[in-house]
Amino acid sequence: MLSIGYLIICEEVIPEKDQIIIRKPLAALTPLNIPGNFSFKVAFSLHNLDKKDFGEENKVRVIFKEPNGNNVIDTGELQMRTNPDGRPDNATVEIAEADLSINNVDLYHKGIYTLILCVNDESKELKVPVIERLKQNG
Fold it and tell me: Whole-prediction pTM value?
């Protein structure tokens, strides 16, 4: 079964030939106003070292919570399977990279939000500050 590697929020994810380019990782979400909305990407990697499970179906879920614990986004349980045809017969590791676009999500409160990635029975949390963007004078 797949396990979680990295989890990051960023401005853009660009597939290019045999690599993924993560453009502008975000240390915080900075809408113009709070309340306001903001768009970003969630990028993550998955890996599996157990060859007998290569290509099996996996459960994936992404949750984004306000500082008070209320869900802003919950994808529900999604099914994900890697492509076993694109892997050499002698492969010893299964790797997957994916991203999810979060567009115009409403952010009503400043503070520390929590992004949770769940894959099968494993989860990884990322604490994400949400602060109003500094206004420029003039």
Answer: 0.88
